[in-house]
Amino acid sequence: MTEVIDGNAVAEEIRAGVSDCVETLTDTGVKPGLATVLMSDDPASETYVSMKQRDCEEVGIEGIHVDVDNDAPAEELYDTVERLNDDDDVHGVLVQKPFVDQVDERRVLRTIAPEKDVDAFHPANVGRLVAGDPRFKPCTPHGIQRLLESVDVETEGKEAVVVGRSDIVGKPMANMLFSKSAGGNATTTVCHSRTEDLAAHTRRADIVVAAAGRPEFITGDMVSEGCVVVDVGINRVERDGDSELVGDVAYDEVAEKAAAITPVPGGVGPMTRAMLLYNTVKAASAESGVDVELP
Ligand code: NAD
Q: Which residues are catalytic?
């Protein structure tokens, strides 16, 4: 029988553990703080930021939000980040993507202090992950790692195929899957938009992580019986006049063959949010020197 991996339940456990860490830190006078910065009038970005703020509130993290005017010079955004870097009440800084045209994305990522970079996108933190000594693990791949652990999926020696090579999902996910220090130890293939015969790769995979942003494009004939499928995609499609959220995986037909699969919604999404809270308490603990038992 196919196991549906319940991201909501695993995320809830992590959030409960994070809540305990917040209590320990707060008892010693350290209130963990996460700052979100938004320079965009994109409604989806506004929703993501308000969800992150709500998540903070629920676990007792101090949420600080800064809006930077859409039309302001890019310097205003860089200065805002510098100010938050210097603010002792802020332990994590997150600038919501995508960025407006005048902003240099690489400069934003370099400006966030590495010890407050709870998204783990700063080149120093990317380097540490690759070197096997992560300060923070990036939220989405870390969440996926936890989901696999939650259903006892053994990655060691297995064939893993990651579809997508983005900096935020594909690349760090592949790294964590193949590296020994991150516990993956899988033989890992990264497929992307120029991959010839994607299905040939996915069919021989024991574990498929789909992160291409293409609605339902991993179909039943592209996976093998008994594989484990993690669907990272979040795609809004119009169907019969209604707007619907679907993943990168054609769920019904793939679930028929898979041993385990993550649904959309309720799979990877809640884990990404939970791991951001996790990284924020980790940052607060490291900065203050107060030990906590991370979940
Ligand atoms: P991205 O657009 O930055 O990267 C997509 C990657 O997919 C690229 O590397 C590209 O080469 C590859 N790709 C595109 N078409 C392909 C094809 N036909 N065959 C093989 N590879 C192909 O996307 P991203 O930021 O990595 O996000 C991917 C998806 O995951 C999106 O739907 C996004 O919304 C979603 N996402 C979800 C979460 C979550 O928490 N659930 C987090 C981040 C991203």
A: 52, 96, 119
In degrees and rounded to multiples of 5, residue 272 shows phi and psi of: -55, -45
Interatomic CA distance for residues 225 and 96, integer angstroms:
39
Of 110, 98, 82, the closest CA to residue 40 belongs to: 98
- Verdict on whether the full-model pTM lies above 0.85: yes
The parent domain of residue 49 ranges over 29-113
Q: 212 in ligand 1 pocket by Cβ < 6 Å?
A: yes
Q: Is 192 in the pocket of ligand 1 (CB under 6 A)?
A: yes
> Is residue 198 within 6 Å of ligand 1 at its C-beta?
yes
Distance CA 2, CA 9 (A): 17
Distance 148 CA to ligand 1 centre (A): 19
pLDDT in tens, 231-279: 999 999 999 899 999 999 999 999 999 999 999 999 999 999 999 999 9
Q: Does residue 135 have a known ligand-binding role?
A: no
**Of 10, 99, 163, 169, best ligand 1 pocket probe by most atoms within 8 Å of the beta carbon:** 169
Q: Please tell me whether 165 is known to bind a ligand.
A: yes
Cα 19 to Cα 15: distance, rounded to the nearest angstrom: 6
Q: What is the CATH number of the domain that holds 96?
A: 3.40.50.10860
Distance CA 45, CA 215 (A): 20
Q: Is 234 annotated as a binding residue?
A: yes
Nearest Cα residue to atom 24 of ligand 1: 166
Query: Domains in the chain: how many in total?
Result: 2
